[in-house]
Amino acid sequence: MSSVEEFRAEIRAWLADHLVGEFAELRGRGGPGREHEAFEGRLAWERHMAAHGWTCVGWPVEHGGRGASLEEQIAFHEEYALADAPARVNHIGEQLLGPTLIAFGTEEQKKRFLPPIVAVEELWCQGYSEPDAGSDLANVRTRGALSPDGSQWVVDGQKIWTSLAHEAQWCFVVARTEPGSRLHAGLSYLLVPLDRPGVEVRPIVQLTGTSEFNEVFFDGARTDASHVVGEPGDGWRIAMATLGFERGVSTLGQQVGFRREWDALAELARKNGAIADPLIRDRLVRAWIDLEAMAASARRGVDPSVGKLHWAAWHRGLGELAMDVCGAASTVAAGEPYELDDWQRLFLFSRADTIYAGSDEIQKNIVAERVLGLPKEARV
């Protein structure tokens, strides 16, 4: 048995032994559009994982991880999804900020922030998008300035679509710290606590009726001067590295979840007779083929922006197909006042897939300019 097969068998056995009792009730809970489900229970489960060494498996051992290889990380995410284990609450800290600090942080930053991420003691959110910038990160207007004595950064501005900010204790914020700078220049990557004066988090009610992302207002919010990752003004490079981690190996586990959704939808089509419609059959087959192509591309190491374009369009299309498979019943809420079933929630929340984590328009520009080497888009 290869080391990867042994690793896969180890995590599979551990999940079978530990997703029991109170944790068994968490199977399938949480995830996009459902982050409100059993949050405290999922937090307890993830801390249980941490106590047994199953968080941050891809991190180097010296930073609290297992030093798992790429193939082992793929195995971990696949087995986790196949076990129907609950959606992770520490994804942003573990998959985004942690690798960023390992790559670019100072030794003091690593000692301060990495252990609480491994232990799931501090949760993080991402302060990128703004009302007037959206996915155009180079046009952020949130400002950061050093206090007169140079001991703190003072942050003013607004972020939006900040997933799980209402549950997080910290936010990594891209802010403009050089007055008069434009576009990519003059940005800094600041680590800002959310439980201090000058920070207000306002949940946003989504189409699903739930609230998992937020507006975050900074009005004189403060953080230590040492809480800047990289050099001041180097925020664009750091932020782009974080986005690369965001679209990395963990998306393979996401694709296992996509397969489970496809399987369930195909079974529903058989049960309710929708499979008799040749157009429905054709769309189901095409969705299956596209899912296979997506998995093959991910294993081959496709460019993260190409991968994001692929899965976002696929998942949104699956939501639309689900409504057609459900038929007229898809238009009626499951209960009062606005209780949705899983297919309705999938359809509504997947409308955001082509917007969050970098909109389709931005991703296409990245692919055109940085992957294909085409001329840059004309900008005013």
Question: Could you explain how this protein is built, in words?
Answer:
The longest helix is centred in the C-terminal third of the chain and has 23 residues, at 278-300. Helix 1 packs parallel to helix 3, helix 4 (91-104) runs antiparallel to helix 5 (107-118) and helix 9 (304-326) packs antiparallel against helix 11 (360-371). A hairpin with a 5-residue loop joins strand 2 and strand 3 (152-163). Helices cover 44% and strands 14% of the residues. It has 11 helices and 8 strands. It starts with a helix and ends in a 9-residue tail after the last helix. It is globular, with a radius of gyration of 21 Å. The strands form 2 sheets. The protein has a 4-stranded mixed β-sheet with strand order 1-4-5-8. The protein has a 4-stranded antiparallel β-sheet with strand order 2-3-7-6, with no helix packed on it. By secondary structure, it is an alpha+beta fold.
